[in-house]
Structure formats: C-alpha cells, structure tokens
Write a structure and sequence with these properties.
Keywords: Repeat, WD repeat. The chain has four helices and 28 strands. The chain is an alpha+beta fold.
Length: about 525
Amino acid sequence: MPRTTVVESPGCLPLRALTADILGLVKVVEARTNPAGAAKVVETWGEPDASRAIVAASLADRAADPVLAVARKNGVVELLNPLNGDALAAVKTVGPALDDGSAEGDPLVALHLFTRQASDSMLGTFIACTDKGKASMRSIMKENAASGSDTEPSTMWDVCSSGNVEFFSVDHGESYAMFGGKGIEVNLWDIASCSKTWSAKSPRANSLGIFTRPWFTAGTFLFKDDHRKIVACTNNHQVRLYDTALQRRPAVSVDFREAPIKAVAADPNGHDVYIGTGTGDLASFDMRTGKLLGCYIGKCSGSIRSIVRHPELPLIASCGLDSYLRIWDTNTRQLLSAVFLKQHLTTVVIDSHFSVEEPVETNSKQPEVLVEAEAEVLKEKKKSKIIEEDEAEAEAEVQNEKKKKKSKTVEEDEAEVWKEKKKKKSKTVEKAEAEVRKEKKKKKRGTIEHDEEEDGVVDGNNSDDEMYARKEKKKNSRTEDDEERDSDSVLCTTKRRKSGQRSKCVKKKKSKKQHIS
C-alpha cells in the first residue's frame, strides 16, 4: 500500500512551474496569490499519447525569448514557447525509429537546452543523449524552424562503449557535461572539444573482496563557478562527492536509507543538495561534512523522479510517480502546496521570471493594439482599486472616530453614575452610624439607672452585716491580746514534765480555754 498522509498546506509564494508526464502532456501550474496561495493547474498543452511520452525536459530560462525543449519517447525533440505552448520546432534525433514510430532500440534519456544564444537568428542549441551513450549537439535556426526542414547535428560523440546512460547534467557555465549510468562510471566531458577530461574510479573491494558494479542514477554540479566538484547518487542508496582536481575516488560518501536515489538538485549556497529516493523520501545533505540536515518524511507516496530548486526563492519543487507536484519550503522543510496532475510525472522545471504584477501573454500573435488596450484596462482597474481602498480607509477612520466619541460619552456617564452611587452610600452610612450611636447612648443611660437602684437596695441590706462584722473584729482583737499575754508567761520545762509535777503554765492554759469557751 502506498503511504498517504493528509497535510495542511499554508500556500506558497507566486510561482510558475511546468510539468511533463508519460502521456506527452505539458501542464502549467501557477500560484498567483500574494503573499501566499494555493497552486493550481491553469493550462494543459498537447494531446494524450503514450508513444509520445516525455522522458526529459529543459528550460532556457531567459527574460526575453524563453524556450522549452522536451524529449519524447519516439526520439523527437520539440521546442515550445513556455508562455503559451506554441510549437516552435521539432527535430528527429539519433535514436533509430521503429515501424510504430517509437525509439525503443535506443531511446532518448537526457536533454539539455543551452540558455545562452550565439545570435538573434538562432532559436536554440541543445544536447541530447540516448540510452546507449550516443550524444549529439544541434543548433536550430529560426529560418529552418519556420520551414520545417531537418537539422543535422553539429557534433556527435560516444559517451561510453557499454552500459546504459541514466543521467546527464551540464554545469552553470555550460562548458562541461557529466554522464553516468548503469555500468558506467561518472565521467566529465569538455563540450567545446568533445573530449573526456575526467573519469571516476571504482571504489575498493569490501572485506570479502567483492567489487560493486557502478550504477549511477542522478548527478549535479555543486558550485556555480566551479565545475570540479560534482555530486553523484547511486542505485545503492549512496550520495558521493567527487573533487575532480584531487582524486578519482569520492571525497565524501554517505548512505541514506535502503532505497535507490532517483533525483538530486544543488542549492545555490554551494554546499547543500536535495535528494529524492524511489520510495518517496526527500532529504537534504551538507556535502562539506556529509551531515543529514533534515528529511521530508511521510508526505510522498511514490518514487521521486525530478527535483528543481528555485534560483531566488527558498523553494523546491518535486514530482514523481504519485502524480503529485509538491512545493516545499527549504528553510522549514514544510509542504507549502500539492497539486494532483492525474498522470505519472517525469520532470518539472520552474520559470524564475514569473511575476504576478506583469500580465502573462496567452498568444504570441496577438496584435499590439489589443495588448495596449488590456494594459490600459488593467491600469484603470488598479486605479479603481486604489480609489476604493482609499474610500474604505476614510470610512474606517470615520467609524473609528465615532466609536471613540461614543466610548468617551459612555465613560463620562458611567463616572457620573458611580459618583451618585457613592454619595448615596455615604449618606446612608452616616445615618446608620448616627442611629447606632443614639441606641448605644440610650442603653448606657438605662444601665446606669438600674445599677443605682440596685446599689440602694444593697446598702439597706448590708447595714446589719456591718454590725455583725464589727462584733467579730472586737472578739478577734481580744483573742490576740490573750495570746500575747500567754507568750510572755513562762512555759513548763521538760524536767518538770518528767517529775510529774504540774506547772503553773498548765493551769494558765486551762483558764484560757475556759475563758474562750
């Protein structure tokens, strides 16, 4: 079962991409909303025909007179206008054609259209390579394209003597070409002289003495200004960095998962690359150290066949056998937009000169008068939009002022209400306090009168008690005097007690007891 996940896409920046599929259709996908919007299909060029499937595509991304070249399964290279899809020229390449119109004997596998133009009369120059390593370079003039006559190749050479070519890449200066494939080591060619300048060397045998057969599936040049550092990916899930000025063996080699790597693209910073595998995994590597920077996991359900990096914006576009064109943010590795295109996709290119502000031409043969009229209509629309925006701003300001005035009046009313409530509360509190004080005074007066009455009664009752207390005091004073007298008398000694004689003190004690009783 393929992996499918539902991901919320926030939308991407204004972008225009062209995709090619196995039915020979070219579809234009645009995101026109600024700053971010969903991408959608706006045009489809061609008729569905499996025998004319597009195997490779290349865009001469120029500000003036851009050209799109597509290589078809039947061995024909077509030049199209990338703005409206008009066919400019069609050339039969070196692939031998069979009776059914296909080139199954030696089909085209790679194509590159040169961006630079040698002269104004030249429509374009391209290099095409077949599966068996037959490379050819052709230049198409505008006169020949208009007449429909065939163009003979200016140069031809054999890239390899055996094996199958699977990828072909040209450096930024368009002076060197890199080839690789199944059974073919990565090799570098000088385009001007059609001579091989460097070839990679097979890696050393493993611990069992077994050599791995070379099988390269994708490659690119790492630097714009230096063609000596190249990145090649293998069917054995390896990413290799070669420095052609130092050695033939890879300087850095990194393994990534277990699936073969099918696509690779370099970042403009000169050290990062983006790779796509046969199981739909997308990742980025720093080739200076071979470190994995991050993965875009779980969002693709088919083999990735093409990756392209936008030269200015932080975006990459990928497509593959799951029939989706996906646009990613290179900074956050987030999916910005995904468009379902129904057929298996083989390649994608990006128009870096696309702008939302400028009107896109839909017909190259349109009269200049109509173009000027459309431009005037667009200007009037812009003016009307500006006027409407100004009016809306003025209305918004008026509404804001009204709201401010209303808020001020409401605040003043609320302040007055609060003041009145506070006054009422203070008056009621003062009244309550005065009443409480009065009640306290009354209670105090009543208690005082009651206490005075009780004191009068108690005084009458206590007069008898006082007389009795005086008598007891007199008795106590008498007893104290008697005790003092007894202390002065002579106590009986122990000798008298032993002799049995009764002393005078004993007699005195008896007399005291009798007196007290």
